[in-house]
Amino acid sequence: MMNNLSQNLSEALNKIKSNKLNDAEILYAKILESFPENYDANFYLGTILAKKKNLEEASKYLEKASKINPSIPDVHNNIGIINLGLKNFEKAEKFFKKAIKIKSNFVVAICNLGIALLHQNKIHDAKENFLKAIKLNENYNLPYFNLANLYKNLEDIKNAEKYYLKTIAIAPKYSPAYNNLLEIYDKSNQNENLEQLIKKAEGENIDKKVISLFKGKLNFKLKNYEKVIHFLESIHFATKEFHEQTRLETIAKSYDHLGNYSQAFKHFEKVNKISLETNPNNADKRIFFKKLEERLNYFNFIDEGRWNKIDDIKNDEEEPIFLIGFPRSGTTLLDTILRSHSDIDVIEEKPIVDKFLEKLELEIESNFSNLENISNKLFINMRNTYLTLKNENIENNNKKISIDKMPLNMAWVGEIYRFFPNAKFILALRNPYDCVLSCFMQNFRLNNAMACFLNIEDAAKTYNMVMQLWNCYLKKFDINYHTIKYEDVVKDFEPTVKNLLKFLDLPWSDKLNDFYKTAQKRGIINTPSYNQVSQPIYTKSMNRWINYEEKFSNVKYLLDPWIKKYEF
Question: From CA 415, how far away is CA 374, in angstroms rounded?
């Protein structure tokens, strides 16, 4: 029994001040055995556990403290912070509001409430709280930073930049603001701003490793490949940090440009090994392969005649246009060219078809044979589902046509065609060896599909299955499509693009010749090609695979038939 409560509390607090947290934790636990309702013991034990990242236990003790004395706003705020860490965003919101109710001008809690709301996609309310925090304290940097993050997520680059710069003006050594703004300047190809911010960060002694990383990325854009290797081989990040993959990938690409292909391949392998080891989304290539196999097994053995005819399509009803192709087939290049036309809007890689398919899977009970006799009601419902999702993602409603660009939608064309038999498909093709190599070389954020690209063998297997599936669709259905080869765009730009525009019933525009200028004005480009499409047409990526020919010895049987079929 601990009879002298005051003495023991004082001793425990001294342990905290001496940074002897383990001793303090033991002492507070003993105090609570005798005095379970003691506020200080619950509060400080919860705080210690939070510092040690034992968030569940920390929350338990802090919530107990808040019940013992509900009038202290900081306790409610701390519980909210813990629940942010636990991703209990609704619960976090509740506790931040409790703190603010007690102390209406509690700027930290108001800012934290904005974060909790942002995580729940309550964009307007989050923004209002950040602005309120700024109004209460113009010299507090975190509301500016979080508001900048909000705009960055919305791809509002102008406002994101504005608030990151304000963050830095208030807190010149706050490295997360530099990191995020450097990323914006990099991905939006604002090279002069990138260089200036790097110099400012160096002057403030901001994280030297991060600055070296962006120095390397800037020099890569400037084609100073030996400098890239110099900057980036002198630093390392923890394996779990995304920066480490970026570092290795940039070194790999630099070695590739310098013609040191063995070192390049070695570094690309390192990047992919880290992706597989970290794998934050638990991506599983087997799930994607299974999806392809299921469709091959069904669509190879049916024909359109087994599908009941639905005539409930109005003549003036919208029919979508899809830009598809195996990843790294030049779809981002085509996207950039097409959006340079005044009549075209391109929806860039949004999960519209994914959500459409999720609903369809429920409707047909994951059984493809249920596609054969669908009701008019389901037909109309699924069309409306897709068109609603698509319209939510259109940036400019004044354009004549909008194109849904997502490369691997080519694997789901059978389901799309069932509900949109008059849809148009633009198929981007590229030499399969170059496609597979480029997929292997890209540091994709892993999902089940991208997990197929971590080695040459799986990437080639995926290419073969997807192309088999596409050709199966062509044999079974009367698909309205136009094929455009990356190599033809590079070698014979204007005639090739004119043929594509003819398919789209649109006239030629001279603006298309300057497509790369459109890319430079776009802001962030959310594909791995963000740096490439902001340049004029170049030929380096054609037949790049020859430099790595020995790596393809085990997969030639998968890729050579497609070389022959499409005459590469």
Answer: 12
Q: Which two structure tokens, joined as six digits, stand for 398?
A: 């004044």
Encoded tokens for 124: 């307007």
If we measure between CA atoms, which residue out of 132, 167, 125 comes closest to residue 146?
167
Count CA within 13 A, CB hemisphere, residue 315.
0
DSSP-assigned beta bridge partners for residue 348? 405
> If you count DSSP H runs as helices and E runs as strands, how many of each does the chain have, helices first?
27, 5
Confidence band for 1, pLDDT divided at 50, 70 and 90: very low
Retrieve residue 281's tokens. 């989304």
* pLDDT tens per residue, range 384-407: 999 999 999 988 778 999 999 999
Can you give the residue ranges of every domain in the chain? 288-565
Question: Tokens in use for 406?
Answer: 């997502």
At 254, give phi and psi (nearest 5°): -70, -45
Q: What is the CATH number of domain 288-565?
A: 3.40.50.300
Hey, what are 404's tokens? 């849904």
Using H for helix, E for strand and C for coil, what is the string for 447-501? Answer: CCCHHHHCCHHHHHHHHHHHHHHHHHHHHHCCCEEEEEEHHHHHHCHHHHHHHHH
Which residue, among 499, 502, 533, 531, has the nearest Cα to 515 in the 3D structure? 533
Contact in structure between 323 and 426 (CB atoms under 8 Å)? yes
Task: List C-alpha distances in Å: 99 to 42, 72, 96, 158, 472.
Answer: 18, 8, 5, 33, 61
- Exposed e or buried b for every residue in 19-32, given b needs 16+ CB within 10 A? eeeeebbebbeebb
How many whole angstroms separate alpha carbon 9 and alpha carbon 11?
A: 5
Instruction: Tell me which residue has tokens 């992919």.
Output: 272
Distance set, CA 382 to CA 255, 284, 377, 404 (Å): 48, 28, 9, 16
Higher-confidence residue: 432 or 396?
432
Angle at 566 between CA 565 and CA 568, to 5 degrees: 115
Other beta carbons within 10 Å of 117? 23
Q: Specify the pLDDT at position 534.
A: 47
Specify the residue for token string 């912070």: 81
pLDDT of residue 539: 67
What are the pLDDT digits (tens) for 30-69? 989 889 999 999 999 999 999 999 999 999 999 999 999 9
Q: Distance (Å, rounded) from C-alpha 267 to C-alpha 173?
A: 32
Q: Are 47 and 62 in contact (CB under 8 A)?
A: yes
- Which of 332, 386, 377 minimizes the C-alpha distance to 354? 386
- For the segment 457-485, the average pLDDT, to the nearest whole number, is 97
- With a CB cutoff of 8 Å and minimum separation 6, the contacts of 484 are 334, 426, 427, 428, 429, 496, 499, 500
Over 70: is that where the pLDDT of 437 sits?
A: yes
- Confirm if 28 and 21 have CB atoms less than 8 A apart: no
DSSP codes of every residue in 404-431: EE-GGGGGGHHHHHHH-TT-EEEEEE--
